Amino acid sequence: MIAITSLTDSPLRRLADYTLDTVSGETEWRSSSMSTRTAQNSVTDLLFVGMVQLNDVESLRMIERSSELINLLGRS
User: Fold this and answer.
1) SS (H, E, C) 6-55
2) From which domain of life does this come (predicted)?
């Protein structure tokens, strides 16, 4: 498992096989928080695309299944 987490010790950090550390100092307007989330989303997207490319058939099946489950949640 790959976790994007802060440098502090946490249950997620201990469970992860790999950690991508993130550091953000907050400002009055939280602009660093927004830029941190943008950077984290970019890294997450790159990891996702890389994993899909490793096994496209299985990945597509899992993506379709995820979509089905999300649709079921929307109906409840």
Assistant:
1) CCCCCHHHHHCCEEEECCCCCCCCCHHHHHHHHHHHHHHHHHHHHHHHHC
2) Bacteria
- Calpha distance 17→73 (Å, rounded): 30
pLDDT tens for each residue of the chain, 76 residues long:
889 888 899 999 999 999 998 876 666 666 667 887 888 899 999 999 998 999 999 999 999 999 999 999 988 6
Task: Work out the number of other CB atoms within 10 angstroms of the CB of residue 20.
Answer: 13
C-alpha angle 17-18-20 in degrees, rounded to nearest 5: 150
